[in-house]
Structures are given as C-alpha cells and as structure tokens.
Specification:
heterotrimer; A mainly alpha (about 450); B mainly alpha (about 140); C alpha/beta (about 290); B: about 140 residues; mainly alpha; 3-stranded antiparallel sheet; about 5% strand; C: about 290 residues; alpha/beta; 6-stranded mixed sheet; 4-stranded antiparallel sheet; 14 strands; elongated
C-alpha cells in the first residue's frame, strides 16, 4: 500500500501547479501571520480562508478527474483506494492549516469578543460546502482552473458584503447540522460519480457510434443550428466572409478578430448585465454595505477581460500559432494584427462589463443633487487594461496561466486601493503607473512574439 | 493479346520500383505477351493506378527507351519495339556468364550435379525457341 | 527561376542543453517528393520547423524559394502549405466556415478542389471542428493546406492518426499532387511503408544528423546484404569502410554494406577468397540496419 501511495503522490509532485500551490500557501500563511499578529476579525478570516479553499478545491478536482477519466482507472486493480486516500490526506492538510490559522486569529485580545459567538464547526461546515462546490467544478468542467480565481474573488466579496448575517447563520445549530448532513451526502455522491468517470465516458462514446442515433442527432443539431444562427453572431459573420480579405489593416484585424468567436454580440449582453448588476447592487444596499459599484468596477473590470481573453485564446491551445504564423503575411504583420485584434477583443469585453455598471451607478443616483457618478474608477480600470493586455500576450505561450492570474490579482488590489490615492490627492498616480508598466510589458511581449520558437 | 497490359509492384520489396517495372516489361516481351507495336499505359495512369510516384514510372520508361526496348510515340505513349540486339558479343557474353554463375552456385548449394542442371536447361531453351519462332511469323 | 526550393546550410538547433539538430545540410529540388525518415525524437519536426522559419536555428541558414526562412514574405508563405504534427484549429467553427476563414487569407483558392476533398474524405461541412476525431481533423488540416495549391507542401507526420484506408487515400492524394511535376512535397514519418510508394528521395535522420540523403532508388541499389562463404577462416572483425553492420561466424559472414557495386563485390571475394551472395534490402531493412550502428 505504501508503495502505491508513493506512486500516487508522485503524480502530484510531478505537476508544476502543485509546487506553485505550495509556494502560494506558504506566502499566504506568512501574510496571514503578519496581519493577524494582534488577532483578526471573523469575517476577515472567512474571506481570507475562502481563497485557498476555492483554488485547492478546483485543482484537486481537476487532478482527480484526469486520473479517474483514464482507462487505467479501470485496468489497474485497487485503483481508487490509494488515489482517494492521498486526496483525502491533502484535504486534511488544508483543513488542519485553516484550523490552526483560525485558532491563531482568534487569540488576540482585541478580537476575542467578536469570536465569542462563532461556531467553529459552523465555519468548517461552510468551508466544506465551498470546497465541494469548487471541487465538483474542477472535476467536471474543463476550464475550471481558469475560472477558479474569479469565483473565489466573487465569494470573497460576497462574504465581505454581508458578513454579520452569514456569520450568524453559520453559528446556528440546526443550520450547521443540516449543512453537515448535506455535505456528507454530496461528498459521497461526488466520489461515487468520480470513480465511475471512465464508465460514463465509455458509454457516451458507444452512444456516439450507434448509427441511427447519430444521424438523428446530426439532423437535430442542424435544426438547432438553423434556429440559433439568428442569435449566434459569429456564425452569421463567418457565413458572410468576403474572400480574399482586403490588404488594408482594418479588414485584416477584423478577420483575426473573427477567430476569437464571441457567441453573443456585446451589445446584446449589456441589458442582461444591467439587470444582473442592479439586483446585486440592490442586495448589497439591503445588507447595508452601501454602494458596491466602485469595488465591482475594480474586481470585474480587471478579472473579466483578463479571463475572457485568456480562455478565448487558449481554448484552441498554444499549437494554433503554428498555422497562424504560416498564413501568407510577414511574421511581424501577423503579430501586429493578431495583437490589435486581441486588444480590441479585451476592450470590448471591458466595455461590455463597465457600461452596465455605469448605468446602474447612474440609475442609483437618480434624484440626487450630483446626478453623474465619478468617472475615476473607470479611468483607472481602463488604464489597467494596458498592462493586462501585455501580461495576457506574454502568458499565451506558457502552459500554466497562474502567472497571468497573479498579475490580475495585483492589478485588482491596486484598483481597490485607488480611492485612497484619490484622497491623498494623487489621482493620476495609478493610471500613469499602469501606462508605463503597460508599455513595458507590451514591448517585451512584442519582442518575444517576434523572437520565440513555436514548438 | 487480350485486355490491357497491367503492372504489378511490390513497394516493400528490395528492388527499386522502377527496376520492377523494367523487369516486368522485359519479361512480358520475352514470354510473348507483349508484342512489337503494343502501347503501354501512360505515365500518369500507371502512377495513379499503382499509387506510386509518377517520376518512378517515367524513369523506368526512359531507361527502357535507352535500352532500345520501347520507343516514344508522339501522342500515344510508349510503344514496344521489336527485338534488337545491342552491344558487342563480348559484353553480351559476359552478362550472360554472370547470370549463369549465379545459377551454378545455387545449383551446387541445392545439391545438383552438372548433368542435372543441363537436363533442366534443355526444355527451357526449347520453349524459348518456340516463342521466338512464333514472334517471327 | 532557381530549381532549389528549400535549402538548409549548417543548421544547428539546441533546446537548453540538448542539441537536437547537428549541422544539417539539405537541399530539395523542385518536383521531388522527399520522405524525411527517422525514429521518434530524431528531430524531424524540429528540422521542418527550422526550415519553415517557425523556429530560429542557433547557427546556419535556412532558405525557402531563395528567401530567408525566418523572414519569409507574405508572397512566399502563400506558396507553402503546411500541416503541423499537432493540429489545433478553431473548435467552434464549422468545417465549411473553417475553410472559408482560412481561404480568405490567400489571394487565390481552389474551391472546387476543397469541396471535392471534403466529399471524398467524408467530412460533414456542417460539423463543428471541435467535434471531429483526430483522423478527421488531420484530413481537414490537409484540405486547408492544399486549398491554395501550394508549390511546396510540408507535412509533419501526416498519416499518424489515419486508419489504413484513409492512409491509402491520403497517399493517393500525395501522388496526385506529385504528378504535377512542379510541386514539391516533404513529408516526415517514422513508418517506411508510408514512403515506399510515393517518395522519390529519402532523407534519413538519426539523432539530429542526416545519415543519408538522396534518391530512394540509389539507396535501395547501393545498400545490400552480402553473404560471404569461404572454405578457410574469416577474421573476427570486418568493419570495412561502408559496412553498416556485420555478423561473423566460423566460415561465413553476413555484411550490410552501403556503396555496393560489382567492383567491391569482386574485391571482397578476392580479399577473403570467398564466394559472395548479394541480397536486396527493402527500405525497412535499411532503416533498421542504419539504426543498429
């Protein structure tokens, strides 16, 4: 058994993200010790703890799904036990880490009173639910790693917004008991389903092969295609490609943009987002946290465009650059046009997110003496797109996107701190910094694109 | 001769494909299945049918042309020429001797003595004489 | 116009510390069908990528149509068709849209040819690219590489995930391309059977060094297996010039030798007072022998 466990552990240590996670959690513990030297409030602790929970959940889910999806899971005798044991061990390590940190946080005399009414088991139960959510996400959704960061950020803001209510819910006995029972059932179901991942794959594969159902499916998908064509912007545009494309920059950039394939036109998304943001804003007002718009601009404005651009470019993998580079244009022409197309794509996403936010902010101020909301958060966030673009283009090559998301996190924190700079009378500091950083990263990235090998 | 002349090739054999094609033409002529005036399939058709590189076919044809076995007909492709004897008697004798040497070595290895080999050669030679008579008629 | 389509002079390429290509010299003339043969990891893909300017050699020069490969002009690229080893296209596009998208980049495109190939290779033009199997994806990539009727077609392990029947149709298509004598095709593979029918030239690559470069016929004609039999005794070592591999028993020896001709056989027979028996080797035998050294 110990030999098997060693082999399973090796599957983790061989992956680079595992060591990145270890390093990040070390840094996390260090930062925590620094912040909590005089104790830490329970809601801050919950927000702080949610990030490693989310990320480790998604990574673990992804790793296990790779292991159980392979045919080896069927062929190797006693496959499940060592794999699940190691996974459970890792979960246990995360849990122990969080418990240790919680005891440390609640020790300070200044915060002891706030921790008084908080049920530790309640915290554990809710942490468990969050972990399960992220785990199943990582297990069954292929892009989960790219989306782990935004979802944990979302959770963070959620907890921060309504901490008092959440904490009281977490401490009520019956709720905690219910959550614990639900968690146990969910864990059992998840593990069972994961152990059968390979069967599910095989079944669906055979299903594909059976002739009549396939032709039926094809006919159905054609029907569906015809129905959705009206909605699907890319399909429509692809069907009306004019050949050959013009020699001018504009039509060439437009053509490269088609390669990013947006499902809906940004303008159709705006009304949907206005409604969503309005509901969110209203909920936050009810909780009594005041306007959340500037925070939302900072958070979604930086991570939304970043993850949108990365997932779009990376779904077709790094290898696609090989044939893109062999298109009948010079290398620097291709890099320039592809880059502009990507920048436009990012800015489009950014406007799609921020215009609804601005509309909501404006609506909420209706009837007040100063009817137009401040534009500063938007200016800062727009300036932040420049370095983000540089980072995205640098990281498209790399197999691990973690770096891009770390950069996104730094930008986001800087944007959240922007109001303080305004109070200090330095409103231009951040945009200028972004501009300089952006120019540097883009120049670096352009050089790399021209010099690098395509393997 | 009925039907079209067909080539067969064994791509994974040791002999280059162009040589296989040349041997087949020579053998078919020797055995009387190809007669002077017959037209061989075009380079393109042969290449496509056998799924081989056209350059291989044209190499075989031009070598056969050089050897005086085929002639290029304008617009019609390659035509089989009558039997002609090329080269001096000495060279031809050397070529034949080299071939016969292989036969002798092999026969020795297989355990036949010289009488047995000569006995076996006789009917084969008789058949060749009959074929060339029918060609001349 | 020069007859050399692709040329590499002294090209070396290393990744970190491993040297993948060691001073490659290669010249491909117009109208040839070149098979690049080597084991997995011999550096075939790297060689093709350096030749195409997708990778920058550490030293040496690579040219295509007389232009520096790293700085190819758009016009030169429009005359090249390339199918990479790992294909990733836009998953959300339909087959028909993918072809139209790709075609738009090129100044001229043969729609009849691509439609014919889509039909022949049983692709559904309404299917999404992401749903295609490996083999179908390879066919689609090949169609994309053929649509602009390139003068130079470079295929990196093109038949790797095709079934035997699709392999034959694919090779037949290569024959058809080759029958237009101004086209040049370079295809890499580790299977000799892919090349036996179609290749006019063979480039054998072994751990980054070209072992043989020349016509397939010359290769088959010059590399032979020779069996020496003698009444006396043969020496234990027979590593003569040109011998690729040898096996010596008491009074007979088996040699695999390159550069074989009548003279050399006579000399062998004379030197060892033995009788020589020469046997042809096919491409696979030669490949195995070359890799045994």
């Amino acid at each position: 058994m110990s030999k098997q466990l060693g082999a399973v552990i090796q599957t983790y240590t061989a992956r680079s993200w595992f060591w990145t996670m270890c390093a990040v959690s070390l840094v996390w513990v260090g930062v925590f010790m620094l912040l909590a030297s005089t104790g830490m409030l329970p809601d801050t602790y919950a927000a702080f703890a949610s990030i490693p929970l989310c990320i480790s959940g998604v990574c673990l889910g992804n790793h296990l799904s790779i292991q159980f999806r392979s045919a080896q899971s069927k062929l190797i005798p006693k496959f499940a036990a060592p794999h699940l044991t190691v996974a459970a061990g890792l979960c246990g390590m995360v849990a122990v880490l969080l418990v240790v940190v919680a005891t440390f946080a609640s020790h300070g005399t200044a915060v002891a009173a706030q921790w008084e009414g908080i049920s530790r088991i309640g915290l554990l139960a809710f942490g468990w639910s969050l972990f399960l959510l992220c785990f199943s996400f990582g297990c069954f959704h292929p892009w989960a790693i790219a989306l782990a960061f935004p979802s944990s950020v979302f959770f963070l803001s959620f907890i921060k917004a309504g901490s008092s209510i959440w904490l009281s819910v977490m401490s009520s006995g019956p709720v905690v008991a219910l959550v614990l029972i639900l968690n146990s059932i969910l864990t059992f179901v998840l593990v069972r389903r994961m152990c059968r991942l390979n069967d599910v794959m095989i079944e669906s594969h055979f299903h594909d092969l059976s002739e009549p159902s396939q032709s039926k499916r094809r006919a159905w998908s054609r029907e569906r295609g015809r129905f959705f064509r009206g909605w699907n912007q890319t399909d429509k545009e692809l069907d009306s490609i004019r050949r050959p494309i013009g020699g001018d920059l504009r039509s060439q950039v437009r053509h490269f943009q088609l390669g990013f394939g947006l499902l809906l036109k940004p303008i159709t998304l705006v009304p949907i987002l206005v409604v969503t943001f309005w509901v969110l804003h209203f909920a936050f007002l009810q909780i009594g946290r005041g306007s959340s718009i500037p925070d939302l601009v900072a958070i979604i404005g930086s991570t939304g465009s970043l993850s949108g651009a990365l997932t779009r470019v990376r779904t077709n993998g790094r290898m696609s650059f090989q044939w893109i580079m062999m298109l009948p244009l010079r290398r620097e022409e291709i890099v320039f046009r592809y880059g502009i197309a990507l920048l436009i794509h990012m800015l489009k996403m950014w406007f799609t997110i921020t215009i609804p936010l601005y509309i909501v902010a404006w609506l909420s101020l209706a009837g007040m003496p100063h009817p137009s909301p401040s534009l500063w958060p938007y200016m800062d966030s727009l300036a932040a797109q420049i370095p983000l673009f540089g980072v995205v283009t640098l990281f498209i090559w790399r197999p691990q996107v973690v770096g891009a998301y770390l950069a996104g996190a730094v930008v986001m924190l800087a944007l959240m701190g922007a109001p303080h700079l305004n109070e200090l009378g330095l409103p231009l500091l951040l945009p200028v910094m972004f501009l300089v950083l952006g120019v540097c990263t883009i120049a670096w990235s352009y050089r790399r694109w021209l010099q690098t090998d395509l393997s | 001769m009925d039907g079209k002349f067909r080539f067969y090739v064994y791509p994974s054999a040791g002999a280059p494909i162009y040589r296989q094609l040349m041997e087949q033409v020579k053998f078919q002529i020797a055995s009387g299945r190809l007669v002077p005036g017959d037209v061989l399939p075009s380079v393109r058709d042969t290449a496509q049918e056998l799924e081989i590189n056209p350059m291989t076919v044209s190499k075989a044809y031009s070598l056969l042309e050089r050897d005086g076995i085929l002639a290029r007909d304008r617009g019609q492709g390659m035509r089989v020429l009558g039997r002609t004897v090329k080269g001096g008697i000495r060279e031809r004798r050397d070529e034949l001797r080299a071939l016969l040497k292989d036969v002798v070595v092999k026969a020795h290895q297989l355990g036949f003595d010289s009488d047995a080999v000569l006995e076996m050669l006789k009917p084969l030679l008789a058949e060749l004489d009959k074929n060339s008579e029918s060609l001349e008629v | 116009m020069s007859d050399v389509v692709l040329e590499m002079i002294g090209v070396s390429k290393s990744f970190e510390k491993t040297e993948v290509l060691k001073s490659i010299d290669l010249s491909v003339a117009r109208g040839r069908v070149v098979g690049l043969l080597g084991k997995n990891g011999a550096g075939k893909s790297t060689l093709l990528k350096c030749a195409l300017g997708l990778m920058k050699p550490n030293s040496g020069t690579a040219t295509i149509f007389g232009e520096d490969a790293w700085n190819l002009s758009g016009g030169a690229k429009a005359r090249i068709g390339y199918v990479p080893q790992k294909i990733s296209l836009y998953d959300w596009m339909r087959v028909r849209q993918m072809i139209a998208y790709y075609a738009a980049f090129y100044p001229s495109w043969n729609d009849t040819l691509t439609a014919e190939l889509v039909e022949k290779w049983e692709l559904q033009s309404e299917d999404r690219v992401g749903k295609l199997s490996e083999g179908q994806l390879q066919k689609l990539a090949l169609i994309l590489a053929l649509g602009h009727e390139p003068e130079l077609l470079i295929l990196d392990e093109p038949a790797a995930s095709l079934d035997p029947q699709a392999r034959r149709t694919f090779l037949a298509a290569v024959v058809e391309i080759a029958s237009d004598q101004s086209r040049t095709v370079i295809l890499s593979t580790h299977l000799t059977s892919d090349l036996e029918r179609v290749a006019s030239d063979i480039v054998m690559l072994k751990s980054g060094v070209i072992q043989y470069s020349g016509s397939m016929d010359d290769l088959k004609e010059s590399v032979k297996s020779i069996r020496l039999t003698t009444q006396g005794r043969l020496p234990g070592r027979m590593d003569l010039p040109g011998v690729l591999a040898y096996e010596v028993h008491a009074n007979h020896a088996l040699l695999t030798m390159s550069g074989v001709n009548e003279d050399r056989i006579h000399r062998l027979e004379h030197d060892y007072s033995a009788t020589a028996e020469v046997r042809d080797l096919n491409l696979e035998d030669i490949f195995v022998e070359v890799h045994r050294v």
